[in-house]
TrEMBL record:
Alphabetically ordered keywords of this record: Signal
Cited SUPFAM superfamilies: Duplicated hybrid motif
PANTHER family documented for this protein: MUREIN HYDROLASE ACTIVATOR ENVC, PEPTIDASE-RELATED
Matching CDD domains: M23_peptidase (cd12797)
One Pfam family per UniProt: Peptidase_M23
Name of the molecule in the record: Peptidase family M23
Domain M23ase beta-sheet core: 67-183
Gene Ontology molecular function, alphabetical: metalloendopeptidase activity
Origin species: Roseivivax lentus
Signal peptide boundaries: 1-19
InterPro entries from the UniProt entry: Cell_wall_metabolism_enzyme, Dup_hybrid_motif, M23ase_b-sheet_dom
Amino acid sequence: MRRALLALFALTSAAPTAAEVSFSGAPFLHWPVACTLGETCVIEDYVDADPGPGQSDYACGIKSRDGHRGTDIALPSEAAMQAGVAVLAAAPGTVAAIRDGVPDRRLDDPSDVAGQECGNAVRISHETGHETLYCHLANRTLLVRPGDQVEAGTPIGRIGMSGQTNFPHLHFSVLKEGDVIDPFAPTPATTCETDRPGLWIDPPAYQRAGLFTAGFSRGVPDFADVQSGAARVAVLALDDPLVAYANSFHAEAGDVLRFAVTGPDGPVFAHSVLLQAPQAQTFRAYGKRAPAAGWPEGVYTATIRLERGERLIAVRHAYVTLR
């Protein structure tokens, strides 16, 4: 069991990227979360298809991270996580390994979860020779044990914030003989088509737009500082302005960025920005000056949503401590 768990946890390391292998079988994966894309969840990142430095998703877009080895399915808020969103077995199989007991929390220092980056997790073996891995499950919500037989759609736990994460999401990986396989594009290709045969029975539609990042700053930052990360602050003084920003990509005219900031005493401000023209990349910021008595001490959260009509395209969260 210990060896199986170590193999499970190693999947979150930044080492090899996804492999492309021949796959001639029928699609066999069902959606692994009890949510609706574009309404109650979004795909935040795909598998990194770029074998070198940098990142690329399977459609030659930028919706991934360097070395990312799975598909991240994100919830729009911690409140949604607390309400409970089930993680489901993606296909029939046998539970090969589990881990539970890792607390749910926003992670500041990755060294705090060294060896537990995947958090609470389940690994399932399937008759196709593949395995599926489900990471960052909520603490003490696992419903299966090694050796259990599951069907597609069997609840195995709930989405949480355990391991190396600071937002509620499921990190879902597919493996074959130790290699990570992109379920959207498991076979080699020289094109960027989004309708390539994959492992999904009902393939989720590809969405190239998203949010690079979100953060807090002491004032409206320069775009170059947003891109480099220099704009982000983790701590502010009680009399500092409170400014949230977001960096979007491939937004369309008519898309809306929605800012919502909450503090220890509840909502602080909400603001919406209508994007007037298509943008390969842009950023927006909004904030408020400190009240005369200063901000209440504590942790503040920014949730930024990119919406297209009634459809949720992307969501990012940011945190800052005021003291």
